[in-house]
Amino acid sequence: MRKIGRGKTFSLVYLLLLGLSAGYILLDTFVIPRRYAVISVASVNTAETEDSQLGQAEDQAQTADSTAQSSASFYQDARFKIEISQYREDDSDIYVADIVLSDASYLKTALADNTFGKNITAATSEIAQANNAVLAINGDYYSARSGLVLRNGVLYRSAGSDSSQTDLLIQTDGTWLLKAETDISDQWLSAQQIQQGLSFGPALLSDGQIEVGVNTEVNQAKGQLNPRSAVGQISDLHYVMVVVDGRSSTSQGVSLYQLAAFMQQLQVQTAYNLDGGGSATLYFNGQVINHPTSDGRVFKERKVSDILYVG
Fold first, then answer.
1. 137-164 residue pLDDT tens
2. Cα-flanking dihedrals φ and ψ of residue 295, to 5°?
3. If you write DSSP's letter for every residue of 197-233 in order, what string do you get?
4. H helix runs in 112-162, sequence order
5. Angle (nearest 5°) at CA 119 between 243 and 127
6. Domain residue ranges of the chain, discontinuous segments joined by +
7. Measured distance CA(289)–CA(189) in Å, rounded
8. Computed from CA positions of residues 200, 241, 284, 281, in that sequence, does the dihedral angle turn out positive or negative?
């Protein structure tokens, strides 16, 4: 019987430990859930009533149900008006939600399971329904990446040190700003009354001008034509959510430049790219209205960490 030498034994043990370590890192990154903060719905509601503008918005919401007008592509009540349109451009199906709010407080964000953490995910429709959203789009999937996380006025994670990262910042009056992460401090966020901060990107439009090149792409993308999610501000309290189907035989997807050019045609002044690919989902009035897919064969929602919604 051949004996294994000490050197070979050490090598085998080392490789085994290395494999276990790598496996744990992968599980910790993509699978094991870690809860860092759980949102208290009661405390959020209490904080909202202390703000006069939000209090006025809640008063309007109490009468909204009795005055609501709704159809498969339209919703209107005392709080906001939403109209859904479908376009066919660049061999792709594009869904646009045109949004007019009576108050900026109706544009909100939500986290999966009302929890800030790692690998805490749910389908966009599930998060939307849990928060009584009329309209929702997937967010920036903060838990799979670094960067600023500011939601409904609560700073969960400060801005990072990536100078190439541009964030979308939404003030309490509904104004949208684009700013590099390295120029964002906690004190600045407070002074500017930033209510929401998302950090996927890149910025697509600024002052109505295209901010991406023809070949610009995010690092995680599979090629240049992909399903996409984006949001934009046209004017005061007037916004759009845009989702493009892709990676299928009926809808190929678009490049970032094509997406920016399309939103420019909608008269959008500030536009921002969100997590796309299989995450790209638009929810309206109780149903998903696009066709989410990662590979063009299986059509279903990918679970995500957060949403941007109207409700």
1. 999 999 999 999 999 999 999 999 999 9
2. -130, 0
3. EE----EEEETTEE-S-TT---TT-SSS-B-EEEEEE
4. 124-130
5. 45
6. 33-310
7. 34
8. negative
